[in-house]
């Protein structure tokens, strides 16, 4: 009898098991249907990227890459025509001011210099000969003037003596002799005055001729100086302590006046030219602090200039250094720069979602506590760094949000994550 009762109970349980399994399946299906009903869309978890809202010091910076360039660059140009005889230095060499860079040759300039020297010597000799001749003529004229003066003075003495005797009416001097002496004295006086004026005029003419000769000699000396300078310009020297960045000529090459010969960059006056993405340039201001990484060291600087135009999606930012550059710094060295925008204490921030813009209102999907659903949430964003962005409103510390691309289901209020 006991065995019969036990068998009946086992058979009853076996018959109830399918119904229990059906109830469980129905319950799970109802729960799944209820879950689906709560979401407008569902996505796979493997396609999502999440980030948690953090709190702390929020450092905002903008990065850019570029090169070191010389603030003081000079191109050496040819001042004369010629042939390149020697290239003394090569690009990359450090040179001192006055050091020979390139040697040119021009036989015509050498010949012109010699001819100008000879012509100047001849002009000097001719000028001296003319001056001596004029001085001799002046001396001869002075002698004639003095002779005329002496004749006048002698006649004057005779006239004075005759006048004294004639006035006494002693009869020693006749009236005819007295009048004749008076006339001769007047003539000799006029002759003396004329000879004196001729002498004075010759002296003035000598001064004028000397000035004219000196002007011609000065002109010739200037011509000689110019010829000498042209010959000196065949030797091209460094105009400042610098690095030779480029040599634009080769030995044997013919060049004309004004041709570029070599490019010099002053090594001690380097700046950094950084290329910053146009989307990030709105935060950059003149005077902001910059850390420039030369790969071997980091150097502080400040933003000194921002290019007003965009080229190939980037804007050039010039950085002046506020501390000494390392010894390995040289023109065209590749560098990276980090421009400090702001440093906010005790700020809420999160890893930067795709398409998130600084100082804007954006739509983000915030996950619930279980991580099964994501709710569309309006979030006010603040300052944006390279990889992170500040949260002003809409999220709290510890909230988890989707930072991957949500554009395909942006219009749905709530999504389920599978």
TrEMBL record:
GO cellular component annotations, sorted alphabetically? cell envelope
Identify the domain of life: Bacteria
The protein here is known as Uncharacterized protein
Taking the record's annotation, the residue ranges forming a coiled coil are 210-237
Q: Give the record's keywords alphabetically.
A: Coiled coil
Q: Kindly list the places in or outside the cell where this protein is found, as annotated in its UniProt entry.
A: Cell envelope
User: What coarse category fits the chief subcellular location reported for this protein?
Assistant: other
Keyword Coiled coil among UniProt keywords? yes
């Amino acid at each position: 009898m006991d065995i019969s009762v036990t068998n009946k109970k086992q058979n009853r349980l076996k018959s109830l098991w399918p119904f229990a399994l059906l109830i469980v399946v129905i319950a799970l299906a109802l729960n799944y249907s209820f879950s689906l009903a709560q979401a407008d869309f569902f996505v796979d978890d493997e396609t999502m990227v999440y980030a948690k809202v953090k709190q702390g010091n929020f450092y905002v910076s903008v990065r850019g890459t570029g090169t070191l360039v010389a603030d003081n660059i000079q191109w050496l140009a040819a001042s004369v025509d010629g042939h390149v005889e020697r290239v003394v230095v090569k690009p990359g060499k450090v040179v001192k001011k006055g050091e020979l860079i390139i040697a040119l040759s021009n036989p015509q300039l050498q010949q012109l210099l010699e001819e100008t020297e000879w012509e100047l010597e001849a002009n000097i000799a001719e000028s001296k000969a003319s001056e001596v001749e004029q001085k001799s003529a002046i001396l001869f004229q002075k002698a004639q003037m003095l002779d005329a003066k002496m004749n006048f003075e002698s006649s004057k003495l005779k006239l004075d003596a005759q006048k004294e005797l004639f006035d006494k009416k002693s009869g020693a001097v006749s009236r005819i002799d007295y009048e004749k002496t008076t006339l001769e004295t007047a003539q000799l006086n006029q002759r003396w005055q004329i000879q004196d004026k001729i002498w004075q005029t010759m002296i003035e003419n000598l001064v004028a001729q000397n000035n004219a000769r000196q002007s011609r000699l000065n002109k010739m000396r200037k011509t000689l100086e110019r010829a000498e300078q042209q010959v000196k310009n065949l030797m091209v020297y460094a105009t400042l302590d610098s690095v030779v960045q480029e040599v634009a000529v080769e030995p044997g090459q013919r060049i004309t006046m004004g041709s570029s010969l070599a490019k010099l960059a002053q090594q001690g006056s380097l700046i950094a030219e950084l290329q910053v993405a146009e989307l990030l340039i709105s935060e950059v201001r003149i005077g902001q602090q910059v850390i420039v990484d030369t790969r071997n060291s980091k150097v502080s600087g400040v933003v000194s200039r921002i290019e007003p135009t965009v080229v190939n999606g980037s804007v050039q930012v010039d950085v002046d250094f506020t501390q000494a550059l390392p010894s390995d710094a040289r023109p065209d060295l590749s560098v990276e720069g980090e421009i400090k925008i702001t440093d906010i204490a005790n700020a809420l921030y999160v890893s930067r979602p795709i398409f998130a813009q600084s100082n804007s209102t954006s739509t983000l999907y915030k996950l619930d506590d279980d991580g099964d659903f994501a709710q569309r949430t309006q979030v006010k964003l603040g300052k944006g760094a390279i990889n992170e962005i500040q949260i002003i409103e809409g999220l709290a510390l510890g909230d988890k949000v989707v930072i991957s691309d949500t554009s395909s289901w942006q219009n749905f209020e709530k999504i389920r994550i599978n």
